């Protein structure tokens, strides 16, 4: 029997890897052949993935409409995630990175609209923070997705009645990376988690961004009657930065570092002065979270219903942020 094709755009990224893994598990009720798209099929991870007989690794150039159209043809299902390219951000700035991802997502949207066999598109995206805030928060890695979202929703694309929007929350591994990384002060053996957000403001965390994205996507595709024409927030838990810091304290206790961890609220200006351009990018996101809290990922719904992990019956399958962080490898003084 020929299996339907699930094409995963960004198959070697955090989200894409999770989707591929979820559908290779025996527990997957929807049986598919996975077409894993990557810009570098000769990489070690791509070659390892290609050893699985149920996976085809295909090269794609997201700047080329023709390349994407060829890669998507014959797909029954598509999971599409793009990245806010860090190399472009570092070399050319936030505007260039925003424009590049915008181009990638628009190319994917136009190509997907031409796939006659397509039944369901899972569209990984983020809310339109600029629209939700009346222009107050232009967060480049959020806004880089908006034009493509609008094209998906346009009746002319033919995608709105085949699509689920999946908005993935804050990654559980973020404190490993700049500018999220807690600042360590050796004189006092303390770690400070610092953002321009109130200490008790809760917002969405995906927890394990790899595993949980896969769990969500599998549930979405296996329950189309619940999920098409819906927005789903990829969330394992809602946490404040104070609670996030408390989890990092548990990490330090597990490491036996003797370090004490606390959260300190700062201004956007202070955050920008400390971290430069990436501080502006992440600082604006945190200011947006500060204003909208738990509603941050459910703004700009265009009237589409928002459904939860509970609606999909997966709330007990997700890996929490605490479980995720305690399972990561941390530098001695991260």
Automatic annotation (TrEMBL):
Cellular component terms (Gene Ontology): nucleus
Q: Name one Pfam family in it.
A: NmrA
Entry-linked SUPFAM superfamilies: NAD(P)-binding Rossmann-fold domains
> Where does the NmrA-like domain lie?
6-294
- Which keywords belong to this entry? NADP
Member of which family?
A: Belongs to the NmrA-type oxidoreductase family.
> How is this protein named in the record?
NmrA-like domain-containing protein
Q: What is the lineage of its organism?
A: Eukaryota, Fungi, Dikarya, Ascomycota, Pezizomycotina
């Amino acid at each position: 029997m020929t299996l339907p094709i699930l094409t995963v755009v960004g198959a070697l990224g955090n989200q894409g890897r999770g989707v591929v893994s979820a559908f290779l598990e025996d527990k997957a009720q929807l049986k598919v052949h996975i077409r894993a798209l990557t810009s570098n099929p000769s990489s070690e991870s791509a070659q390892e993935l290609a050893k699985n007989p149920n996976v085809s690794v295909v090269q794609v150039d997201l700047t080329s409409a023709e390349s994407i159209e060829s890669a998507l043809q014959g797909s029954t299902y598509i999971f599409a995630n793009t990245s806010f390219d860090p190399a472009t951000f570092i070399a050319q700035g936030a505007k260039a990175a925003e424009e590049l991802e915008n181009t990638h997502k628009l190319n994917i949207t136009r190509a997907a609209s031409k796939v006659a066999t397509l039944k369901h598109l899972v569209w990984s995206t983020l809310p339109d923070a600029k629209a939700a805030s009346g222009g107050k928060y232009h967060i480049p890695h959020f806004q880089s997705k908006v034009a493509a979202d609008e094209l998906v929703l346009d009746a002319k694309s033919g995608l709105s009645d085949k699509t689920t929007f999946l908005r993935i929350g804050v990654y559980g591994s973020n404190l490993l990376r700049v500018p999220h990384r807690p600042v360590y002060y050796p004189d006092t053996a303390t770690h400070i988690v610092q953002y321009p957000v109130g200490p008790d403001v809760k917002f969405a965390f995906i927890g394990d961004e790899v595993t949980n994205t896969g769990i969500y996507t599998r549930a979405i595709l296996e329950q189309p009657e619940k999920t098409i024409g819906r927005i789903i927030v990829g969330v394992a838990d809602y946490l404040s930065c104070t609670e996030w810091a408390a989890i990092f304290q548990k990490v330090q206790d597990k490491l036996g570092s003797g370090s004490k961890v606390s959260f300190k609220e700062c201004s956007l200006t202070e955050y920008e002065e400390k971290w430069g351009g990436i501080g502006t990018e992440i600082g604006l996101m945190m200011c947006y979270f500060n204003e909208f809290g738990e509603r941050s990922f459910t703004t700009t719904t265009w009237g589409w219903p928002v459904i939860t992990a509970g609606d999909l019956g997966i709330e007990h399958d997700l890996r929490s942020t605490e479980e995720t962080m305690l399972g990561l490898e941390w530098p001695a003084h991260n």
